[in-house]
Every structure is written in C-alpha cells, then in structure tokens.
Amino acid sequence: MTYKAPLKDMLFDIQHLANIDQIAAIPGFEDAGFDTAQAVLEECAKFSEGVLAPLNWEGDKNPSTFKNGVVTTTAGFKDAFKQYAEGGWQGLQHPTEHGGQGLPKLIGASCGEMLNSANLSFALCPMLSDGAIEALLTAGSPEMNAVYLEKLVSGEWTGTMNLTEPQAGSDLAAVRTRAEPQADGSYKVFGTKIYITYGEHDMAENIVHLVLARVSGAPEGVKGISLFVVPKFLVEDGGKIGARNDVHCVSIEHKMGIKASPTAVLQYGDNGGAIGFVVGEENRGLEYMFIMMNAARFAVGVQGIAIAERAYQKAVAFAKDRVQSRPVDGSIKASAPIIHHPDVKRMLMNMRAYIEGCRAMAAVSAAAFDASHHHPDADVRKQNLAFYEFMVPLVKGYSTEMSLEVTSLGVQVHGGMGFIEETGAAQYYRDAKILTIYEGTTAIQANDLVGRKTGRDAGATAKAIAAQIATTESELTEQGSADALAVAERLKEARLAFLDVVEFMTANGRANPNAAYAGSVPYLMLAGNLVSGWQMARALLVAQEQLAAGVETAFMQAKIITARFYADHLLTKAPGMRDSIVAGADSVNALALEAF
Amino acid sequence: MTYKAPLKDMLFDIQHLANIDQIAAIPGFEDAGFDTAQAVLEECAKFSEGVLAPLNWEGDKNPSTFKNGVVTTTAGFKDAFKQYAEGGWQGLQHPTEHGGQGLPKLIGASCGEMLNSANLSFALCPMLSDGAIEALLTAGSPEMNAVYLEKLVSGEWTGTMNLTEPQAGSDLAAVRTRAEPQADGSYKVFGTKIYITYGEHDMAENIVHLVLARVSGAPEGVKGISLFVVPKFLVEDGGKIGARNDVHCVSIEHKMGIKASPTAVLQYGDNGGAIGFVVGEENRGLEYMFIMMNAARFAVGVQGIAIAERAYQKAVAFAKDRVQSRPVDGSIKASAPIIHHPDVKRMLMNMRAYIEGCRAMAAVSAAAFDASHHHPDADVRKQNLAFYEFMVPLVKGYSTEMSLEVTSLGVQVHGGMGFIEETGAAQYYRDAKILTIYEGTTAIQANDLVGRKTGRDAGATAKAIAAQIATTESELTEQGSADALAVAERLKEARLAFLDVVEFMTANGRANPNAAYAGSVPYLMLAGNLVSGWQMARALLVAQEQLAAGVETAFMQAKIITARFYADHLLTKAPGMRDSIVAGADSVNALALEAF
To answer: Catalytic: which of B439, B473, B503, B545?
Structure first.
C-alpha cells in the first residue's frame, strides 16, 4: 500500500471541529450526518488507495503524450476515470436534480484530499469538471444546462477552465480571445488559450471548455469579458455527439511535475471559428469565473494538504525502515531506524503538524461554505459566507506554501535516496510546486486577502475571527493542563501579532498600498498559520475531553502532542512575521529597479 | 547572456569584509592581493559565462548516459573540461610545488561560486578532484603524490570520493568494503560504492578514486576504516596509463536534478580485486576523509549560494520583462513589468538578501581558513581555525537550505512559466535539492555544530563570535543613521536569541541529548541567519563610509537597502526560532513511534 487515507483524522475534524451534526441539521442535508460521512470516506479511501494511488508514479514515468492533435493519457488513466465516473464520485457535491449526490462540501473536501493524495495528476481532471459545473450552476440557462450539466456531473464528459493567454496570466484584463455573435444566437470564438489542464485527453467522449473571451465591441478591461461554453464536439438534439468543433490542441507542455496531467495549448477558430454559447449574460464572464475560481482555489488548497500527506506517509515509512546510526541518547546500543533520531522526528512532526492544522482549517471552512449556502437563517448564512471567503485565500495560499516545505522535508528524510526518482519522494516535491502558482499565485491570494477580504470591511471579519480565537484561549486556560496553557500562550502571541497586522493593512491598504502589499504574502502566511494553529488548539481541547472519556486514547494523545508541537514550533513564527510586515515595508520597496 | 558573474559584490566582500589586504600580508600570499583577486575573478567570469553557462540547460535535457559500463557525458562537457584544465583552474588553490597556483581560498571560493552558478553539474567534477587533492596533500606519501597529485592538480585526471554504501550513508561506521593486503604492499579492494559523483565519465583519461574500506581484521566501527587510492587505470612507471583496474561502473542514477553529473554505482573487485594503495596509515581513513569533507562541505555551501544567484538573475530578468497588471500605487496607468509589484520586489529582495548574506559569510570564512593555515602567528592561526570550523556547518547548512527557498521563489516569480521546463527556472529548483543532502545532510551539519563546534569548547567559540557581533552593534549605533540603528536593534535581538540557544545547547548537549538534538537544525539555521545578517550589517557600515566618500554610489546604496532588508525580514525570524528550540524540545520527542 503506497497510500492509506487518514480516515481517523479526517473524521475527527468532520465530527469535532467542523461539527457535522450542525450541517446535518440544515434542511437538505438531513442524510449527511457523521455516519454518511464515514461511509462515503471509507468508499473513497478504497478507490483512492486501490485504483488511483498505484497509477501515480506510473503517470510520472509515462506522462500524457501529444501527437497530431491527439493527447493520449498514461495507460490506466482512462479506465480509472471510467471507474471514477461509474462510482458517482464526480457528482458527490453537486445537486441531486442534476444527477449528483448533493452532499456537503465538508464531506467532499475530504474525498478531494484522498483523490489528490493518491494521484494529483489524475484528480485534476475531475477538479476542473467541478469548476465547469459550478460555472453552469451559477449562470447557465436551463437549456444549456440540460445539454451539458448532467453529462459533466455523471463524468461522461469532462470540463476545463480557459482563462490564460500568453499575455494574460494573473492579469485577466488582458484577455484577447474574441467571440463574434452569430445570427442563431451562438458565437464564433477565435484565439489561443494556454495552460489548459486536461484541455485535450482521451478519458471522456466530450470536453466542455469554459472559455473567457471578448464579444466584438465589448468594453476594454475586465468589464468586457464574457464566458462561453465551447464543446470539443458539438451536441446534437437529443444529446448525441455531433461534429468536431473548431478547437484544437496544438501542443502540451513539458512540465516539472504533474506530468500525467496534460497541459494544453488550445487554438480556437483556425478553421472558421469555434462555435460557442454564452454563459449567462455578456460581459459578466469574470464574475462567473470568480465563483468557479473560488471553488477551485479551495480545491487547490486541499491539493496542498493532499500532496503533503502523501509525502508524510512516505517519509514515515522510510524513517521506520531505514537503519542508520545509534540514537544520541544511548537508548539503543546499535544502529536503529532513523525515526529514533530527534532531527528526523522534528521533520516528521513539522510535516504532521502542518498537515493536521491545514486539514482542520479546510474542514472548518468547508462547513462554513455549506452553512453559507444552505442554512435557513439569513444571518447565519451571511456570517458563514464572510468567514468562508476570508478562509479561501488562507486555505489556498497557506496550505500550498506549506506543501512546498513538507514535500521538501519529505525528500530530506530520505537523504540521498530522496533525490533518486525511483524512490518517489522527488515526484511529490516536483508536483507540489505548481500548487502555489495555478488558480492564482500566492501573491494573488494575498491581494485578495488584503483588498477584498480585509480592506473592504475594514478588518471586521478578521477581528471577529480573532475574537473567536480569544475565546479558545480562555477555554485552554480554563482547561488548565500544561499543554493547554502553553498552547494558549503561543496562540495569544500569534493572535496579537495578527491583529497588529490587520491594523496595519487597514491603515495602509488605500493610503499606502505599496507598504500594505509589500507584506501581503507574509500577512497571508501569518493568518494561515494562526487559523491552523487555532484549529489545532481546538483539537487539543476536544482530545483532552475524549481522552478523559477514554475514547481512542492513542489517537487523542497524538493529537495533543501534535497541537503542542504546532504551538511550540509554528505559531512561534508569528511575532517575527508581524515585525517583518509592520516595520519592514520600506526596505521591500526601496531598491531602484535598475539596481536589481 | 544567461549568467553574469556578480563581480562587484564578490570583490566588495573580498576587499572590505574579508580584508584581502590582511591575507596578502601573510608570507606566501604576497601576490594574492586585491588586484590579483580582481584579475582572476574576471578571467573566471569569462570562462563561466562563456563556456559553462551555455551548457547548463543542455546537460539537463541530455544528461550523462550509461551503456555497457561506459558513461558518456553531455555533448560539450568534455571539451569544456579540457578548457578548464588548460586554463589552470583546477590548480587555483593548490600548492605551487604540485603545479597549482597557490592562491588563497578567499579567491578560490568566488571562482567556485561562478563555476557552480554557470553549471552546477559540470562544476561537481572539479570539486570532487579538489577533495581528492586535499586528501592526498593531507596524508599521501611522497611516492603516491608523485604519481597522482600533479595529474589531479593539472586536471588531466579527476578524483572521486567513495564513502557511501547501500547500508552506510550518514553512518560511515557501517562501511563494509574490504581491502586485503598484498605481498607487494598494495591491497585488493572488494565492495560496492553508491552515489559516486563522476565515478565514471569520459572527460579525463584516468579517474583517481579515494575509497573508504576496511583492512581485513581491522576494528569494527569508524576506527577500522582506512582510505585507499584506487585508480581506474593503473599507472605504470613514468606515469604512463597502464592496465584497467577492477573497478567498474554498473549503473548511474536517474535523479531529480544535477542530471548531467553522472552518479555512479561502482563495483570493486568482481574480477579478482581492484588494486588499491593505502593513503597514510591504516585505520585513520575517516580522519583524512573529514579533512577532505570539510573542504567539500564548504564548497557545497558555495554551491548553494551559486545556484541561488543563478535563480535570482533569471527571476530579475523575467520580472523586468514580463508585463502584467498595473502597479497598486497607480504610478503607472497601464500594465507594467511585474517588478513594479511589491510582492515581486519582496521575493527578489528576499533572494538577494539571502545570497549577499551567505556570500559574505562564505568570504569571511574563507579568509579565516587562509589565516588558519598560513598566518605566521600560532595564536592567530588557532583563533582563525576555531572560527572557520564553527563556520563550516553554517556555510554548508544555511546556504544550502536558503538555496531551496531562493530557487523556489525563483520559480514563483515566473508564475506558470516557472513550471515549464524550457523556461529553466525549474532546473535550479530541482538541482538545489541535492545540496542539503550530499556531503552530510543539514542534520549532520547540525550535529557537528552542536557536538564538536559548540559542546566541545562549552560554547566558547560561539560566545566569542557573539562578542564580535556586539562590537558591530556598537559601531552601528555610533554610525547613527536610521538604517544603522534599525539593523543594530534586529542584530541585537538575534544575537541574544543565539546566546540563549548556545546556553541551552551547552546545558543539554550531554545531559539531555534528545532535547539538544531536537533543536540542532533550527540552531544551525539561527546561527547561519545571525552570522549572515552580521556580515550584512558590517557591509552596511562599509557602504555608508564609501557612500560618504562618493565611491560606487549606486552599489553602496543598494548594499545599505539590502542590509536593512536582511535585518527587517530575515533577522526578525531569530527570536521565534529561539522559542522553538528552547521551549519546544519536548514536543519534538513526545510522540510514540507507532503513532507516526
């Protein structure tokens, strides 16, 4: 077994930190309680461990290939995707009225983690379909959805997101792909899109491209961008596959990682125009795309947790197996497995604490998403939406940045063997590096955090979260164990550091944007660190209760130790980050451009 | 030009921080003053930029190949090595009596940086030859040296270091390769060595393997290890190449990076025994190897600086070229090169500050090495040796760990393009990861720092360095500029944090080794951070003087800003690291092994 889903930890978060009972109390989610979560996660674990995980290294060795416009995926991927679709996994979180299972994101997020731990390259395909589904649910007409939505939800077809062009990466205002309205209400689309994940492949009979383009005569900038559906094959009445559309893959990229996932350059309209259909209203494309991107950003954050978990499991297995040198404390008189060495433990504990902290943050955020969409009380929805939206850049930015450190530690634990490709640890290191880039780089997430999520409400949401954290500190103090007290102290220092930074961001966001944005990514990292550490602190409180009740003793003891480690070694970074952000903006911006 | 040697910065360090005038005042180094340094560095820059740098990406695309026992290096490498040898570069730091140029390490280190920036995979070959030369200089008999040394120094032959075996990585006590004494005073060597850099190649007519092995009947553990010369081809009287020796390459590794550098599995003695010659005395092999490893460790630290510099230059070029989005401060009303965005500046400044800090630390350490070997005054030699030996784990550990962060930022600055192999940024990210592993992992460096370098003299050297840092703080305070005062404050906080940790290490090193070694790598990182930051602080003082004198104004202003950035953003990490080390040891060690 190369991957074992961490079901116990996932279910702990779902039950105790994200409170699935409260989600199951929401109308529509009555059947989505803890038992359902457990059953679904167990099934997903089987599929991920048994079908997807064994294909992961295979995909790295034998990536997707491109020849004459055709992309052939790694042997085994097509069949795995068929099983995925037949298992109903694509529809997990999507509405029952379109053929989905209508389960909460809280359950979906854990499944997403497993799929991505098992095989990041594979799991990207369904992730992109999820994005296309979200976009259609948001703005597709009933007629359009009748044609495309169920096929996407069932996994018969897959979806893509076409944003990037050579001159338009983070800056979507620069999109040039154009759409010419036709007499029949359709459009002809012309242009080049790059970095299109699963933009061409052989795993499904049709591909539904969601494409950002400008209608002729539309305003410049982001206000003139519309969203189109451009299917690879046109769809005839009755849903039958029709003529090949004028969208063609002209090459796929040679990438450092996620090699099995074909990253396509797509050419639209070289032979008269690709036929497309506008989604929702013209010129509102970016707005729809952002809805879809928020879902995708959360999902990429989960990918960070997923790849980190896989790297951790591999490192643990190696550290228990590899015998090298005597323990420094003399407790063993011969060479011992390297997990006995304190620095190996330190690396593994770092990995573990990061992963558990980020997993808990993601679970709590997913539950907030569910409540924000489905809770009957408008105030509850609103509060949860504010919380969730604040969390999206943290889940995306912090979890993926931490995955770089964790996968690097994963290689390091292996020593020289980590650098040999056949060992497999290097693949995680290479794969992870895309996560801080796609669906918005960490800097783009940080801009969102500083501008929309902190500036717009003058820090109100940030301060409300800090107030919740202060409550947890009181609970820790009341609990009174040495661990609880130590964690409370570190959490308080980190919270106060965070509040100083929030103050700095709200004061400078508009007045001195260069100063604020000089610290945007450190602010994101500090906030992500704090929130993850807070969830670990909450986990410690739960674990101490459960321990007192005699439940899952070993697991609860481990949780307490890991929470303590998080506070000792990760939360302690917060005050220094505060100093860097609040006192260090000038030195970020001072150097003349020609001096670089 | 894909690489431009940072001559100005190197010469600034050599002149002002490492005080080459003092080195040139040492007998034997009379001709090694600033002018010589400048001339040598300029020549080395030409060679590195013009010959080696263009082969770097080529070597990644078309790595060394293995077929039927023969390794063929990337096209162009053989000729480049010929030029390297003919240019006299291999002998730069080696004694004139063996055909070298006898220049100080202070000059050699800068040349090493350039060669490695230009082409890390290539530069490994001469680096390993340097190691073999060091070992022979240390312990080789005049007869042995007459045969091998000049050929190595001239670059006609190359050298290797054969330490690792499948069961003996960090733990050399487990070495099993055996050597059987023969009647003629030679030995027959039998065993398998792995991870042998340039263990087989086509760039030189002979390869001189330095091999750790056990003489039959030798004591167990490290005290029974001897060092042997085992040439690929035996050498006849008069230095002519003779019969092929019984050492054969059976495979080379498929690695994540440094792909052009062949990493060989060598089989000794499958056909009757490889003929070897003991270096120095039997059973003292590890002692000799450590001398050679200390040189190699310093050199690997320089590789970290080198790869970071290359990544920085590439990122700067991209950031000045790539146009995307308007600056947040509204200073430009259209899309601008991304270097205008504060977060891009932050990433570039981080890279720059790390590199300049580590380069200065390496220069000062190299000068200490020179003084420790050649100064006429024994006390001066002793002081410098203690300083240099303290620095080796910092130069190796800190500079290579920072190179992981810097090469990751390098990819990040490129956004999506960074993940595409053809861009080249990904290669640096992949190449760098070996640096924290080979010649002793960061943990091995940290063990050395905690045990030999801090514990053995009860922190005396560490405290002496802290006292020198306090002097710099006084000078900064006296200087009195806003930058100097801000740097003084951060330096003081970091120094006090360091002293707390030194106290903790000396108190716990023997009494509670699990606690000490739980913090060993963080201690190394804190110490490296402090010393680099200290050198940046010294650089600031020099730059303010030079600025006042009107010398190189733009360079000096940039140095001051970079030093300030270092203090604001990197030194500020120190107090948190102290807290993690001093208060966090228990949570590193607490988790039961079966709970991982």
So the answer is: B439
| Residue type present at position B398 | Y
Q: Domains of chain B: which residue ranges?
A: 7-139, 152-283, 441-586
- Measured between CB atoms, does A342 come within 8 Å of chain B? yes
Question: Cα separation of B44 and B7, whole Å?
Answer: 10
Q: Which residue of B has its CA nearest to A322?
A: B167
Contact criterion met (CB < 8 Å) for B430 and A169: no
Distance CA B144, CA A210 (A): 72
C-alpha distance from B303 to closest chain A C-alpha (Å): 17
- Residue B113 annotated in active site: no
Write down how long chain A is.
596
Within 10 angstroms of residue B593's Cβ, the number of other Cβ atoms is 12
- List the single residue in B with minimal CA-CA distance to A337: B593
CATH number of B7-139: 1.10.540.10
Chain A from 191 to 220: CB within 8 A of any B CB: 194-195
- The residue in chain B having the minimum alpha-carbon distance to the alpha carbon of residue A405 is B405
Tell me if B589 and A348 make a contact (CB, 8 A cut-off): no
**Amino acid, single-letter form, for residue A536:** M
Q: What is the pLDDT of residues B265-275, one digit of tens each?
A: 999 999 999 99
Beta strands in A88-202 (DSSP E): 157-162, 178-181, 187-197
Q: Which residues of A505-524 are buried (b: 16+ CB within 10 A; e: fewer)?
A: bbebbeebbbbbbbbbbbbb
- The string of pLDDT tens digits covering residues A396-453 is 999 999 999 999 999 999 999 999 999 999 999 999 999 999 999 999 999 999 999 9
**What's the ipTM?**
0.97
Supply the CATH classification number for the domain A158-283. Answer: 2.40.110.20
Which residues lie across from B265 on neighbouring strands? Answer: B251
* CA angle centred on B527, ends B525 and B531, rounded to 5°: 120
d(CA A330, CA B517): 13
pLDDT of residue A293: 85
* A62–chain B Cβ distance below 8 A for any pair: no
Is the domain spanning B152-283 CATH 3.90.230.10? The answer is no
> Would you call A323 an interface residue with chain B, using a CB distance cutoff of 8 Å?
yes
Catalytic residue among A49, A200, A439, A473: A439
Please name every residue paired with B263 in a beta bridge, in sequence order, or none if there are none.
Answer: B197
Q: Tally DSSP H helices, then E strands, for chain B.
A: 20, 12
Task: Give contacts of B 576-595 with A, CB under 8 A.
Answer: 576-577, 579-580, 583-584, 586-595
Please give the single-letter amino acid code of residue B222: V
The shortest CB-CB distance from B349 to any of A419, A426, A591 is to: A591
- Residue environment code for B366-376, b if the CB has 16+ CB neighbours within 10 A, otherwise e: bbbbbbbebbe
Distance of alpha carbon B95 from alpha carbon B208, whole angstroms: 19
Residue A180 C-alpha, separation from nearest chain B C-alpha, in angstroms: 26
- What's the CA gap between A502 and A516, in Å, rounded? 10
The pLDDT tens digits of the residues spanning B377-423 come to 999 999 999 999 999 999 999 999 999 999 999 999 999 999 999 99
* Dihedral sign from CA coordinates of B247, B248, B252, B253: negative
> 10 Å Cβ neighbour count for B311?
28
The Cα–Cα gap between A228 and A240 comes to: 20
Mutate to test the interface with A, among B312, B323, B419, B570 (most CBs of A within 10 A): B419
* Domain A7-65+72-152, CATH: 1.10.540.10
pLDDT, position B1: 65
Of the partner residues B325, B554, B573, the one whose CB lies closest to the CB of residue A576: B573
Interchain CB contact of A69 with B (< 8 Å): no
The pLDDT tens digits for B441-458 are 999 999 999 999 999 999
Sign of the C-alpha dihedral computed for residues A69, A74, A77 and A79 taken in this order? positive
Which of A404, A426, A438 is opposite residue B416, by nearest beta carbon?
Answer: A438
